[in-house]
Inverse folding.
């Protein structure tokens, strides 16, 4: 069977073009798409749904009320189409705004994550520095304590050596003093002994002369 467009289908069925289009939109009337992406309808489908008018029959002029109704329907469809276009435009604008907000939020999130990582790294580095400083202070304290201990031990050794030297000097002085006293005592005895032997020598001399 032949396939026709919406306008020709309206002529074959005696219906308005808008009626044919609404039937296609609702699925009541099946159609196909041609190479130019236009909707075409099989004549047998038109006959099944609406029936075909006899060809060559005199066309009767449509009443004025039908024409007005058709025009009103067409105007209503145009208004509805414009309204749908406006809704689509508004939805597109909203989607665009949401996309921009999402992009901004994504950028802020990435920036916050970067700042958080920097803070974390700084905190970890500061903590590491604090631990290193603590360990260094502890090591210095231990070295200072070891140096003080060593100095105390050396000072004690020097004091012990000085005490021993003082004791030795005292003992030496004591021995020297005793030796000096003995030497001095011997010197005091020698004149006394000389004085005691002088009269005896005199008596011996006198006796020799008398003889």
């Amino acid at each position: 069977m032949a396939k026709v467009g919406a306008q020709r289908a309206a002529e074959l069925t005696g219906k308005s073009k808008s009626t044919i289009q609404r039937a296609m939109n609702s699925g009541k009337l099946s159609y196909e798409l041609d190479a130019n992406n236009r909707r075409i309808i099989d004549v047998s489908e038109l006959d099944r749904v609406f029936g075909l008018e006899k060809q060559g029959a005199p066309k009767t002029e449509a009443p004025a009320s039908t024409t007005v109704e058709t025009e009103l329907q067409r105007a209503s469809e145009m208004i509805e189409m414009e309204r749908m276009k406006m809704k689509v435009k508004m939805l597109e604008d909203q989607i665009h705004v949401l996309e921009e907000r999402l992009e901004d939020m994504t950028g802020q999130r990435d920036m916050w994550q970067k700042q958080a990582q920097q803070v974390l790294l700084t905190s970890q580095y500061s903590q590491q520095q604090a631990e290193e400083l603590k360990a260094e202070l502890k090591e210095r304290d231990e070295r200072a304590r070891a140096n003080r201990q060593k100095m105390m031990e050396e000072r004690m050794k020097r004091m012990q050596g000085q005490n021993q030297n003082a004791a030795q000097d005292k003992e030496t002085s004591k021995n020297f003093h005793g030796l000096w006293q003995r030497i001095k005592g011997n010197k005091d005895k020698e004149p006394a002994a000389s004085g005691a032997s002088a009269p005896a020598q005199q008596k011996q001399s006198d006796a020799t002369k008398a003889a």
Remarks:
- The chain has four helices and three strands.
- The mean pLDDT is 80.
